[in-house]
Every structure is written in C-alpha cells, then in structure tokens.
Amino acid sequence: MILYDYYRSSAAYRVRIAIALKGLVVERRPIHLLRGEQRDPGYRAKSPLAIVPTLELDDGTFITQSLAVIDYLDALKPDPPLLPKDAITAAQVRAAALTIACEIHPLVNLRVIQALQGQFDAKDDQIAIWRKRWIHDGLSAVEALIAPGPFAFGAAPSLADVCLIPQVYNARRFDVPLDACPRIVAVEAACASHPAFIEAHPQAQPDAE
Ligand SMILES: N[C@@H](CCC(=O)N[C@@H](CS)C(=O)NCC(=O)O)C(=O)O
Predict the structure, then answer these.
(1) Pick the CATH number of 87-197 from 1.20.1050.10, 3.40.50.150, 1.20.1250.20, 3.30.460.40
(2) How far is the CA of 11 from the centre of ligand 1 (A)?
(3) Which residue of 39, 46, 102, 195 is 20 to 30 Å from 52, comparing CA positions?
(4) Cα separation of 186 and 11, whole Å?
(5) Looking at ligand 1, which atom is closest to the CA of residue 52?
(6) CB atoms inside a 10 Å sphere around CB 187
C-alpha cells in the first residue's frame, strides 16, 4: 500500500497514527502542498478534490478521505480496534472525531485560507483570528465530549485520539491557547509518549522541513 501524504497535513497525520497503531507497513509518497503538487493532474487522478491523504491499495484502488481510509485499515487489521465495542461509547468516540474532522478542519484547511487571501484579500492578522476562532471553538467542544483515562476514551487510543492529536499539533503551531482544555492537554501528554504517535509525528517524517 502507498500513502500519499504531507508531513504537516493533519488529515494525513491521522492516517499515519492509525497505520502505526496497527503496525502496518505502508510506503509514504509526499505531496508538497505548499508547492501545489496536490493539483498536478497525475495526483488529481487519484484524489479528485486534490487533497491528501490518499491510500493506494496493491491492486491500484484509491481511497480518499482520512476517516474512510482509517475505517478501511481498521477492517483490514481489526487489532487493536479504533472503536470500543460498546455502541454508545463508539458513537461518542465518533462524535469527538467528527467534531474535529467536520467542524474544525474544513474551516482552516489550506485552500480555504488561500481563498480568503486570494478572493477576499484577507491579511495575515485576519487569517490568524479566523484560524484561532474555529480551532478554539471546536476544541472547546471536544473538551466537553471526551473522558480521558488517560487517552480520550479510556486506557487505549481510539479514533478520537487519532483525530485529536493532529488538531492539537495545529493548535500549538498557531498559538491557540489550550488553558481551558485540561482534558485535551492530558490526552496530549499521554499520546506524547506512545510509540505510534511518536512515529507519526510531522517532525519525524523524512519530508519534514
Ligand atoms: N476531509 C478530508 C480533508 C483532507 C484535506 O483537506 N487535506 C488537506 C491537508 S490537511 C489538503 O490536502 N489540502 C490541500 C489544499 O487545501 O489545497 C480528509 O479527512 O481526508
């Protein structure tokens, strides 16, 4: 399998964590987002929306969307599971993951920021306010949804941690204060010493700058 990836893409970072948790061997092919490589026709043929991550299977099938890729990996190698067996807790894990993937990430994605700059002439300070607002509001909601023990939903990492840690990485990168999010900070600390999260970290990738 091949993962089309970018070291600082939080959606791709989710997939890297899932791959590492499951101990899968996947070749990484970096797509440099700031150089616009995602829009090259060759890559767009794999990912019609021109975004990473994309997983290429050995038979040439492409899967886009990080949560769909992670679902596939979870089905391919169910152990360790990324969702708890209990249906209610599993729904809560998904709700936390989807809050990040659907309510935060699309608002602060590169092409949205580039559209604000290019179409509406947004300045750097306005972009910073925009980014901080959506990350702060979304993570404040996630803070209320999780129940660390020490991971977001208990003793083992789940889909919630897989989505949360890349978003926390971005919050740190853009100076979003997390003082009002002690549960998230506790999960961040638990994941910081977990080998899968260490392996998947953006700065641990060969294309990191
Ligand atoms: N919902 C998608 C989001 C993927 C996505 O937007 N990836 C970003 C990087 S985190 C990207 O490739 N952006 C390129 C661009 O905006 O041009 C997923 O979960 O895979």
Answers:
(1) 1.20.1050.10
(2) 6
(3) 195
(4) 22
(5) 12
(6) 26
